[in-house]
Specification:
The chain is 47% helix and 13% strand. By secondary structure, the protein is an alpha/beta fold. An eight-stranded parallel beta sheet has the order 4-1-10-9-8-7-6-5. Strands 2-3 form a two-stranded antiparallel ribbon. The radius of gyration is 18 Å and the shape is globular.
């Protein structure tokens, strides 16, 4: 259902407010560049600092801008199951094609707690659900056996796997087979994950190099492994650059240097240090992006 280069799109701000016009322009650019899907209100979209009204408006603008040309998978995760249900119901109401739900963070549920969390959400909202496993941010790792249990729910259709652990990805695909689509959540693991049986990526780098990321997937699907590998190595410096500081600060800074958005972020995030910004500029220049 969901595959290819799916951009974990930034949320542009201007003077602390959601910049709707710029957001719509970004989505139009992504569609013209071949991006296969949009994720509003993910980590890169600063969902954790949006209030409910902002969160809903970002989803609404994304759905209207995409206009069914490519799928919109709205970030609706929370560390409260009731809140996750509320957000997911609203995303469905707003017309999202799917919902991305990060594992509950901070409260560190057990594997049984994770299973029950997703079970309750899946039963409460009839929308395609993408699980999101990113233990580096949430302090909990959803194990392959837990994901395999969750494949009994037909609307749990995919997982964004961001452990960076190819052994875990291999076990996940071995246990789940084609009952769930496995999507990379770390750009540097995307090509290895495709080789293991993954179907795409929810990508930070696609924010600044959408055509290269889309073409890497297109080449892989056509069996042009050499081209896919070449594009992997082409974007690898960008993949690293997007984490010079905490995501999404580098990617928003890069987009600002490209003239696409303001580099505004919401506290507790703040602008890049001058030294790191200079490093980022050099990487973008070497890549021909600025």
């Amino acid at each position: 259902m969901f595959k290819g280069s799916i951009v974990a799109i930034v949320t542009p701000f201007k003077n602390g407010k959601f910049d709707e016009k710029t957001y719509g322009d970004l989505i139009e650019w992504h569609i013209s560049q071949g991006t296969h899907g949009i994720v509003p209100c993910g980590t890169t979209g600063e969902a954790s600092t949006l209030d409910f009204d902002e969160h809903y408006r970002v989803i609404e603008v994304a759905v209207k801008a995409a206009n069914k040309r490519i799928p919109v998978i709205a970030g609706t995760g929370a560390n409260s199951t009731e809140e996750a249900i509320t957000l997911t119901k609203k995303a469905k109401e707003l017309g999202a094609d799917g919902a991305l739900l990060v594992t509950p963070y901070y409260n560190k549920p057990t594997q049984e707690g994770l299973y029950r969390h997703y079970k309750v959400v899946a039963e409460a909202v009839d929308i395609p659900i993408v699980l999101y496993n990113v233990p580096g941010r949430t302090a909990v790792n959803m194990l392959p056996v837990t994901v395999a249990r969750l494949t009994e729910f037909k609307n749990i259709v995919a997982i964004k796997e961001a452990t960076g652990d190819m052994k875990q990805v291999s076990e996940l695909i071995r246990l789940c087979g084609d009952r769930i689509t496995v999507i990379s959540g770390d750009d540097f693991t995307t090509l290895p994950m495709l080789a293991l049986g993954g179907k795409g990526a929810i990508s930070v780098t696609a924010n600044i190099a959408p055509n290269d990321m889309a073409e890497m997937f297109n080449a892989w699907e056509k069996g042009d492994i050499a081209k896919a590998r070449s594009l992997h190595y082409k974007v690898e410096p960008l993949n690293a650059a997007m984490f010079i500081e905490t995501n999404p600060v580098p990617v928003k800074t890069a987009l600002a240097l490209m003239g696409k958005i303001s580099e505004d972020v919401k506290l507790p995030l703040c602008e890049m240090s001058p030294a790191n910004k200079e490093k980022l500029k050099e990487i973008l220049k070497d890549a021909g992006i600025i």
